[in-house]
Amino acid sequence: MKIRVTERQASDMKNYDIVIIGGGPAGLAAAVSAKKSGIDSILILERDKELGGILNQCIHNGFGLHTFKEELTGPEYAQRFIDQAKELDIEYRLNTMVMDISHEKVVTAMNREEGLFEIQAKAVILAMGCRERSRGALNIPGYRPAGIYSAGTAQRLVNMEGLMPGREVVILGSGDIGLIMARRMTFEGAKVKVVAELMPYSGGLKRNIVQCLDDYGIPLKLSHTVVDIKGKERLEGVTLAEVDQNGKPIPGTEEEYSCDTLLLSVGLIPENELSRGMGVEMSRVTSGPVVNESLETNIEGVFACGNVLHVHDLVDFVSEEAAAAGKNAAAYVRGERSAEGGREIRLSPVDGVRYTVPVSINTARMDEELTVRFRVGAVFKNCYVSAYFDDERVIHRKRQIVAPGEMEEIRLTKDQLLKYPDLKTITVKIEEA
Amino acid sequence: MYDVIIIGVGVSGAASARELSRYKASVCVLEKEEDVCCGTSKANSAIVHAGYDAVPGSLMAKLNVKGNEMMEQLAKDLDFPFKRIGSLVICLNEEDMPALEELYERGVKNGVRGLQIVSGEEVRAMEPNITDQVYAALYAPTAGIVCPFNLNIALAENACENGVEFKFDTEVQSIVKIDGGYELETSRGKFQAKYVVNAAGVYADKFHNMVSEKKIHITPRRGDYCLLDKTAGDHVSRTIFSLPTKYGKGVLVTPTVHGNLLVGPTAIDIENKEGTNTTREGLDEVITKAGQNVKDLPMRQVITSFAGLRAHEDGSEFIIGEVEDAEGFIDCAGIESPGLTSCPAIGEMVAGILKEKMNLEEKENFIATRKGILDPDTLTKEERAELIKKEPAYGNIICRCESITEGEIIDAIRRPLGAKSLDGVKRRTRAGMGRCQSGFCSPRTMEILARELGVSMSDITKSGGKSRLVVGTNKDRI
Amino acid sequence: MEIRNLTCISCPMGCQITVEMDGNEVVSVTGNTCKRGDVYARKEVTNPTRIVTSTVRVIGGKADMVSVKTKEDIPKGKIFDCVKSLKGVEVEAPVHIGDVIVPDAAGTGVDIVATKNVERA
């Protein structure tokens, strides 16, 4: 947004040590962690009418196995963190949209009650999450009738509003939200005819394929896509076709499906308009900020965590990552984060590894243990996840399978890094057995 | 019996209605869709052409240049976005220079001001993303871009304000000559008028042929487009055309008034007058051809694609005037490009014809201006804060991508000829037109629509008719 | 002898497991790569269970719907009966996590409970 800024009146401005943009799982965990690290002045800004973010519409179970050692539904998982935040008296604003963040960490936000207001933050934690890729981004040809929804929009309608987007459903994309919605729509009385997936493998968890599709006899067509959309007013049908190795539809493989609803679960995109606006350096691979070991962006005191940083599969890891961001932001505010005496080590993803978070490590600032998360670009079976410290292979972990749909990690310890005083680059790669 | 019935409220019909509303006459507009701007006017290049394309002496040439000249003042009067950004017709090699020079000559004959042939080097300096192969270009500083929705809606709203009646969801089925005028049978009953203006876009031939023995024929000529995210909006700063062919002006690349980048269209003649579906071949063609003049187009930034139909008449010329063998029946047919540009002049011409025939008198109380939906982004922080204090709905963002507030959406619904559907809100406010393509805001906009219109969520449509967005409630069929 | 084919859900491998059954007795489990596959397959063929999640309408709450789940796993064959037991069910706000919405759903002995707090509007 462009706001014509006139004289800024410093006296009007509220001040907080840490302002957290987003009150979803990442924002909540970051806030709780920062508070526990001794910072009192924290403000969460949430655009929706309640805390918890997208978890509120993820009513299925399967959350929290790592964090709470039990299986929770999305709203239950969110409530655990909301309760903690409330117990810790963490301040938050609902229905509040952040319009702009300046390079100097002045946050401009807006809501009905307070209008347009500014907050000066010492540290900012970006936790805005992600949005769904739309039909447009896929350039699917055909008409543009009602009845085409991203899976998440349909999820909101069904789960939060109790409204049925349609009766006969085709789903494009076998990401977890698409799979979950196949089961949800079935429960609510819709007929899910097929799930089509462009890739030769599903990006969703095996468990979801079995328990959301197989349980209900919903076919999954790999290497298939939608090549035509019919119906001028309301969707009347779609045409699926098989695709070749380059993802191009193969003529002659077209199949017609009559349906009134097409749900798209074709990828998530970190929502970084605010980050870009304030000058945060972005990764072309993750579409999220480039961060160091402290999950700090190129702007000092600006941290990022959760799906705004890179899209996660499991909320447990979002919480874990966000807790680290909160702790690091707290240390920053207290002036306890010094790079003095430390060395800068780069992380380099190659051979099947698409990216790493973080991309650099300062040995002075790093904790005793650091989790490096990454994704692979294809399915690899019977392989090794390896990390080379310059030329020496230090980590070599056998894996039966690694797949693009599941985030991977390696853990590095400070002691380990200090043993290599000249270390410049850690290369993370997949090696075939 | 009305004095005048106008069939269709695209830009031609709306401009005609608005110009006619200056005079003392009862005017009614019949529209088969649920809203203004649902046909050709909503899906086009959104370009205000300079006027060098049309054959000198043609009506197209005359109205193009005149419409272009009128657009700036009209945009001020009716408060819709218009920017005179200029255009470049790219010539890629020396052999094509005669064609470029011919365009220049034509432009001069048509009265286009400021035309220049610029060298490849100059073009690259003006537009760094133009292909290195550029040899020369025709630069037309008077070309511009406009928001076609708001142009169309503004004209209609202003006409409504000045007393024109509008009947939506009213499809004309037959027209018969009666004493002193015409009777139009529609999906919502019969209407009579002394005069009929046929501004029915791709259907104008159908209505013309109901009253005339001198048949005309309109081919829907489909154009596929891709719209790119605002991050790509400054890839070029002027409208970039190819040298025209007999099918039209080729694939262009242009910024939009809202800061996106638009590429397209194709030109594919079809039979189906409702055939606004894009095709794989069409979209591929757009992507390939757009890259011929502009390099490094970030096609990964496409946020949506769409297709529109131009109403191409066999004679490749606007047909505006009283039908020879049907007295009182005024055609406004074959309005293809540069129809959007020409619409202010078309409206004036149609109203002029009727004024003369009917001896119309001017109203004393004609309201010449209209205020658009307030865009809070144009306010200072202080003004905005003040606005939210008065109207808290302006503090509630509904569409994140385009920063559209509840206040703007309410305005869009409540104003004359207000929005009744999700697309109606979208065309008026841009809510849902951003990079997430309404993924987040559609349920919220639906709620506001339901509340404001006093209907249930399941009555809300995407674009009227059968385009309902939800079909029932959970477990209602188990 | 009955042959059952399953996809293991224990990891992304998704091993295709074949289970040989003699009545209710598992004779053999093949195709799995690890122990977890064996455990999963035996449970899935003898006593498959699921948690069922859905929503019910709330009257007078800050939200229109409240999410619910079966408090424990229920037999897979009872999934739709459990879902049907929720048809037409409405609860009055406030509702809190753990509140029983439908006791002993579809005769499973398992309660359906709320998974979200919805306060009074």
Provide a compact summary of the structure.
Chain B is of the alpha+beta class and 478 residues long.
Name the features:
heterotrimer; B: 478 residues; alpha+beta; FAD/NAD(P)-binding domain; D-Amino Acid Oxidase, Chain A, domain 2; Arc Repressor Mutant, subunit A; 3 domains; 8-stranded mixed sheet; 5-stranded antiparallel sheet; 23 strands; 31% helix; globular; C: 121 residues; 5-stranded mixed sheet; 3-stranded antiparallel sheet; 2 helices; 15% helix; 37% strand
Could you explain the architecture of this structure?
The complex is a heterotrimer of chains A (about 425), B (about 475) and C (about 120). Chain A is α/β, with parallel strands linked by helices and about 425 residues long. Chain A has nine helices and 28 strands. In chain A, strand 15 and strand 16 form a beta hairpin. Chain A is globular. The termini of chain A are far apart. The N terminus of chain A is likely disordered. Chain B is of the alpha+beta class and about 475 residues long. Chain B is built from twelve helices and 23 strands. In chain B, strands 1, 2, 9, 10, 11, 12, 19 and 20 form an eight-stranded mixed sheet that branches. In chain B, strands 13, 15, 16, 17 and 18 form a five-stranded antiparallel sheet that branches. In chain B, strands 6-7-5-14 form a four-stranded mixed sheet. In chain B, a hairpin with a 2-residue loop joins strand 10 and strand 11. In chain B, helix 1 packs parallel to helix 8, helix 2 crosses helix 8 and helix 10 crosses helix 12. The radius of gyration of chain B is 22 Å and the shape is globular. The model of chain B has no long low-confidence stretch (mean pLDDT about 95). Chain C has two helices and ten strands, in the order βββαββββαβββ. Chain C has a five-stranded mixed sheet with strand order 8-5-6-10-9, with no helix packed on it. A three-stranded antiparallel sheet of chain C has the order 1-2-3, with helices on one face. The termini of chain C are far apart. Helices cover about 15% and strands about 35% of the residues of chain C. With about 120 residues, chain C is α+β, with helices and mostly antiparallel strands. Chain C is elongated. The mean pLDDT of chain C is about 95. At the B-C interface, loops of B face strand 5 of C. Strand 11 of chain A pairs antiparallel with strand 23 of chain B.
